[in-house]
Amino acid sequence: MPADGDLAEAASVLRSGGLVAFPTETVYGLGANALDARAAARIFEAKARPGFDPLITHLADVADLVPLVGPVPPAVAALAARFWPGPLTLIVDRPAAIPPIVTSGLATMAVRVPEHEHARRLIAAAGVPVAAPSANRFGQLSPTRAEHVVRGLGAAVDVVLDGGPSRCGIESTIVDARGARPVVLRLGALPVEELAKVTGPVTVRPGSSGQPVAPGTLAAHYAPRTPLRLLAAGGPAVGGAKAMPAGLRRGYLAFRDRPAGGWAAVELLSAAGDLTEAAARLFDALHRLDAAGVAEIVAEPVPETGLGRAVNDRLRRAAATWHPAG
Ligand code: TXA
Ligand code: MG
Fold this sequence. Notes:
The chain is of the alpha/beta class. The protein contains ten helices and 14 strands.
């Protein structure tokens, strides 16, 4: 836990238009005062993020939603009541108090109440809503540790709060629950099955090419610098590829079983075959493989169920940078 003085200092940096990277249970966020257009602009600059990719506004408490945005549709209220604080982002109408740069000009705004204690105390102490994307450069691996933020963004950030490794390790699930049937815009740390228990059937809209609804769903995203090749699920290629190909130094990202052969680096997501643990370790493992000096990362998909869907989604996007998806 950071000292109260550090949190107070970070909160005052936020209030005066600065950038504070802070831990959340999903990934680390790069925060700025969401009421301040110039502060929000600094986020886009620090991340080299295109202006068309809107930010998520973070609140300290569920009770802060309606005072900021006004009355919300019943399904939005029900999901907020059930899952906040937690790894769920909801789409609402953008209130006049939030400058359009935060939402990239959209009439809607993405909002969530993070669960991580540091995040909630920071936002409460700042006394303003906090716009925060993941604290990485655009398109690169998301940060799940303070050191990932420092390595990726360095001097572009005024303060980095260290809250240890992120518990979920994968971004929030984004849901538009304003209509008759909720639509998942980004698979994430809250499994679709959990949402459906509250709202009934939900639709999962995979990112399509063209004008993205949630640009975190761009085909090429969350990518390491090293080319990543994703193996086919359960196909014969998996077993075959587990033998070390001659010549190149390659890294291997495995789900539960250590691959045979002399891979230069191997990361195991969960020896117990647990998808929650696999999600929590995903980006950290990719950061390590990326730093291992290998020519290629070979990754195997995890089971396509629960959190596994979000893990496979991130792996497909990481692979798409180098092997455009058909
Ligand atoms: O877990 C998370 O959500 C983390 C932590 C820091 O809260 N944040 C995060 O932010 O992943 P970012 O900026 O990396 O991803 C936010 C996604 C983007 O893909 C963006 O397009 C989408 O949210 N988004 C933001 N506003 C939106 C809106 N009004 N409609 C649809 N999608 C929106
Ligand atoms: Mg991001």
